[in-house]
Amino acid sequence: MKKRLAFLLALVLCLVACACSPNKGGEETDSCDEKSSEHTYMSEKTSGTENSFEGESSFLLPEDESKSCVVSVEMSVPEISGKPEITDKPTDEIVTDRFDDGISYPHVIGSFMQPGTFEGYSKTQMTDHLKAMKEVGIEILILQWSFETDDDPGKVITSFFSDSFSENEKAKGFIQYHDLVDVILAAADEVGVKVFIGLNWEPDWHTNSEAFQDKSYFDKFIETGLKGAKQLYDLYKIQYPESFYGWYFPPEYWNMNISQKQVDNAAYWLKSFRHGLYKIDPAMPMMISPFVISSWSSPSEAEKMWKGILAHQPLRAGDIFCSQDAIGSAHITLDQLDSYFKALKAAIDTAPGVRFWANSENFNMIEGGATAPLNRLVMQMEIADKYVEHHVTFAYSHYQHPDMGKAGHHEAYKHYYQTGKVPTSKLLKPEFDVTAKSGGIFTELSAKIENTDKTVWKLVIEKNG
Known about the structure:
The protein is α/β, with parallel strands linked by helices. 31% of the residues lie in helices and 25% in strands. The strands form 6 sheets. It has an 8-stranded parallel β-barrel with strand order 6-7-11-13-14-15-16-19, surrounded by 4 helices. A 4-stranded mixed β-sheet has the order 10-9-8-12. The longest helix is centred in the middle third of the chain and has 22 residues, at 215-236.
């Protein structure tokens, strides 16, 4: 109650102090900050069991909505227990495009991109890369991360943008790559692609957080991530207001059979991170991309876990829950896909306004990370389509793009995108001439392949007897 009274008193004082008064020359001068559309960043500080956001917040004056007044306030986000109060309203819907293109059959509208593969790209190369994807209906790019931390989430080890992390915030061996974020946003601006910028990635987050049990790990991760987000926003949002569209949260949750405390901690991490991004810009959506794995829990258990996390309202209306279908990773089978996505949809329906998309994997991990056959990718999308609003993929940029030597896969998908039908062609039966040459304990095999107009990717030779 005391905090509420203090807050109201501060607001009243603000309204009084911001009244305009004549100056010595008789002209009116305004003591208020006129940047009413500017959203001041709230840095997070950890104190005891509370996370406090201290800084400045703007309040519009009813007499003149073109001006704002700045007043210092303190806002508290309690540690999650049940449903905590939070200062912003999670039901305020973010204005997001619906990306409807009038095509009735399932198709990909976005692709993930990992920065290392494209680190040396020029703006011209990136523009051409995005144009090739735009011609098959891909209008969203998700940069999976823009900087990485090492085992200490407070230490940055690599950066793909013009960051301003202090030397104390950089890990030993820190690598500063060229400004890939600027290259991507400039190219996306030219082509008309929306970009979700991924923040801090730490490959061993699950182990280092002790499976959602080490809260101090989350606090460091959140602090570093929001520092990077603020730098990214200040560097690029004004310059690229259209292409710099949203945020991507890199840690990939999955359906673990975990305790209530771990569920609460998982929600705390996600909610605190989301809350900080909201303070940077409340109009920018955030995307997450968890995955499912049948060996860890059943569809019903996955539904229970996500209902528990979403009960804490860690995502806002307009945010995107973009689940990996885990087919390419072989974590589930095509036969299991429907039941898992049905369960996820039931959980997401408990979070008003949160949008459910599919991240349809277009690779085959069992075959060494090869590009998946197009008919399998289409089957994945057809199964998930009844539950989701849109499909993106991990990752057209890597597994179907001409830049990666995948011109044939690109042309095949273009045919599907334009017609809704997977292309077929008569495959001439290859003729194989296999010869063997013994040499010590090894036998050397060689094969000559003729009478086919297709590339033979793999030849399997089995010993009989």
